[in-house]
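RECORD TYPE: inverse folding
INPUT: structure tokens
STRUCTURE:
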């Protein structure tokens, strides 16, 4: 047969090295490709530099598991190289809960069937049909990435064959009971390292138990939770990066190749000095010229139990000394805004006694004070945070208000700061000095290195991808409006929130991504596009997407516990195309996977590059009318609700976090967050642009699409 399927078939998430030593090159002239007639064989091959063709396997043996495109024949070839394995076959099978895992069926070599196991290799046990799975996994990991290592190994006396002598894959697939039973196996941690790391996983994921071969993302983990996992693991003595977790998302996989701690781990001092503006800071000052001092992120909590206000103030000041972002200050100059990290400045806890006011008036009094505090920042005078305590009287708990200017903290930073605040307060309560977890790369160091990276060839190599959006996104579908010409201001913002049940959320987070081989972000975006399509008249959606922005673009950088505003903001063109919801999710996921480095390069090229023409071309891209942001899972335990500092929800509003007359960049903001085990989707819209009934209809349509997808996993 002539080969008609030729090329390196790989996806953006396929990091495996080319494997050539177990294939026999086939010599064929390139002129064969120009023959008058070609026959499609179903074989996959690629040209080698020496002119040979490397046979890679059958196209119909390719599968997609958790977003990775995998060539099953490649795994089988490496398995056959093990001296204990005579024949091997690998299938992708689904568990009862809809998860998809790789299952390896192995037949032993003839010598082993005659009791010569130990003479041949110590990797096998003495049971007639038992294989040392750890030995096989280690053999595979030396040649393949973790996502290509099967989750289950099934030993067979002999491989079932078809009449023409080939492996009978249908017969293997029919071994349903054997496969299901094996897939249900839970491998508990066996070593001290596995047990300690499993405890960290269980705490971060909020699950009862974690097996050594359980997939982090299959248990409901996401990119934001991965940062928290890395930080917690680091405190326990384990060091790995987000990329390593993505490529080896199991405890066994991570411990198979232990990583040395970064050279700067726990040592970097957050020094004072100038700080180059990062992409998101450039974006902020570009889009908020009217009142840049008034753009905050805040939290109001009810105090449960006793609260020592002096200790609390000391704990907050320990955070300011530890995290350099909390000492940032900004100046407007003739050349634009400049930033620097200042020396530590004390934070004074402000106290407000509302106990004498009538009980029905206290909430209104608190909200009036909060509104004044929200508007009171001076960007030139750090620290850009406010701490206020409200005495609500003996009949109800006090309130604690924390306000950070968004320039110094994002959603990931909130998790870090709340954990550190609870830790510092607990240490002071025990009469101990404050000792916070070791510093990761400082914000100033990261910003300086990022500015240099923006001029590199690696950064500029992404420019063609982003410029291609100038054509595809040049004429995005405009959103219908109820009030043409209405001013889209922060002061006119209203909010509508709908939520899934806990059961639906569990299915959506843990089963749907595994079943469809797609990220949770793709699931949410596909549901959004499908829900809006009847309204906009198009499934094509031009959307501004936000990510945590802490991607690994710089070697040796660890941002897992670095406080600051890192958000990556970038445009995405979502084009789900049909009535099949599952197919639409896969289509959106494929589009997201084509985006380099999860979108952080867009801001780098848009604001930091010395390529003026490239910056101008990106600036001409139209502003997406919708902003989408998935904040991940915000666990209650991360919010200081246990230990000496016990905080709970409060009913009052925190006041306007943005200046009411500032224009919003997007018309609609759709924000997803999992809290209390349930996915909440917030729709933020302008009363000057859209009616509430319109947004209610859109929100319900998108939620119905999410429920339809959750049903796929039942």
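DESIGNED SEQUENCE:
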């Amino acid at each position: 047969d002539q080969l008609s399927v030729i090329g390196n078939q790989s996806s953006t998430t396929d990091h495996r090295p080319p494997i050539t030593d177990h294939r026999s090159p086939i010599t064929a002239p390139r002129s064969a490709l120009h023959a008058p007639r070609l026959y499609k064989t179903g074989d996959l091959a690629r040209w080698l530099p020496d002119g040979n063709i490397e046979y890679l396997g059958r196209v119909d043996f390719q599968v997609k598991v958790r977003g990775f495109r995998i060539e099953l024949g490649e795994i089988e070839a490496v398995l056959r190289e093990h001296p204990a394995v005579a024949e091997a076959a690998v299938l992708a099978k689904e568990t009862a809960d809809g998860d998809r895992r790789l299952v390896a069926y192995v037949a032993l070599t003839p010598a082993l069937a005659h009791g010569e196991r130990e003479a041949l290799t110590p990797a096998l046990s003495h049971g007639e049909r038992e294989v040392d799975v750890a030995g096989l996994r280690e053999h595979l990991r030396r040649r393949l990435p973790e996502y290509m290592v099967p989750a289950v190994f099934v030993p067979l006396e002999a491989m079932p064959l078809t009449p023409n002598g080939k492996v009978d894959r249908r017969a293997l697939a029919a071994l349903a009971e054997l496969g299901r039973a094996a897939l249900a196996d839970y491998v508990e941690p066996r070593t001290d390292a596995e047990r300690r790391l499993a405890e960290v996983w269980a705490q971060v994921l909020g699950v009862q138990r974690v097996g050594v071969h359980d997939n982090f993302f299959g248990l409901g983990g996401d990119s934001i939770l991965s940062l928290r996992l890395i930080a917690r693991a680091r405190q326990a003595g384990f060091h790995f990066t987000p990329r390593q977790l993505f490529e080896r998302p199991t405890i066994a996989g991570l411990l198979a190749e232990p990583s040395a701690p970064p050279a700067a781990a726990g040592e970097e001092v957050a020094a004072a000095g100038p700080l180059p503006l990062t992409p998101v800071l450039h974006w902020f000052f570009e889009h908020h010229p009217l009142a840049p001092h008034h753009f905050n992120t805040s939290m109001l909590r009810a105090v449960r139990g006793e609260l020592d206000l002096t200790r609390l103030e000391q704990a907050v000041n320990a955070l300011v000394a530890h995290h350099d972002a909390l000492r940032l200050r900004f100046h407007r100059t003739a050349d634009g805004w400049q930033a620097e990290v200042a020396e530590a400045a004390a934070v004074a806890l402000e106290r407000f006694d509302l106990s004498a006011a009538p009980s029905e008036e206290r909430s209104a009094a608190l909200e009036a004070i909060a509104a004044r505090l929200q508007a009171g920042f001076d960007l030139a005078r750090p620290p850009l945070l406010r701490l206020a305590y409200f005495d609500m009287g003996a009949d109800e708990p006090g309130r604690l208000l924390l306000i950070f200017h968004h320039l110094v903290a994002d959603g990931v930073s909130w998790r870090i700061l709340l954990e550190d605040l609870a830790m510092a307060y607990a240490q002071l309560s025990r009469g101990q000095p404050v000792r916070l977890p070791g510093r990761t790369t400082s914000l100033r160091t990261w910003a300086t290195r990022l500015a240099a990276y923006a001029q590199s060839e690696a950064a500029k190599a992404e420019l063609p991808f982003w410029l291609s959006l100038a054509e595809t996104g040049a004429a995005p579908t405009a959103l219908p409006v109820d009030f043409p010409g209405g001013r889209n201001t922060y002061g006119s913002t209203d909010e509508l929130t709908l939520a899934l049940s806990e059961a639906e959320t569990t299915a959506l987070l843990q089963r749907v991504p595994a079943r469809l081989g797609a990220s949770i972000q793709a699931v949410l975006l596909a549901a959004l596009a499908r829900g809006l399509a009847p309204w906009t008249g198009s499934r094509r959606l031009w959307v501004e997407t936000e990510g945590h922005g802490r991607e690994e673009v710089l070697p040796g950088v660890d941002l897992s516990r670095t406080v600051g505003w890192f958000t990556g903001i970038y445009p995405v063109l979502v084009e789900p195309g049909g009535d099949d919801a599952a197919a639409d999710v896969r289509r959106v996921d494929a589009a997201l996977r084509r985006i380099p480095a999860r979108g952080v390069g867009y801001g780098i090229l848009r604001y930091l590059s010395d390529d003026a023409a490239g910056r101008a071309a990106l600036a001409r891209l139209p502003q997406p009318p919708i902003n989408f942001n998935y904040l991940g899972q915000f666990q209650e335990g991360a919010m200081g609700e246990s230990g000496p500092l016990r905080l709970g929800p409060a009913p009052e509003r925190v006041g306007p976090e943005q200046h009411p007359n500032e224009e919003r960049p997007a018309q609609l903001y759709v924000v997803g967050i999992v809290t209390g085990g349930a996915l909440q989707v917030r729709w933020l819209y302008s009363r000057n642009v859209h009616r509430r009934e319109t947004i209610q209809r859109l929100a319900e349509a998108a939620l119905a699409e999410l429920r339809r997808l959750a049903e796929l996993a039942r």
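NOTES: Residues 692-711 form the longest helix (20 residues).
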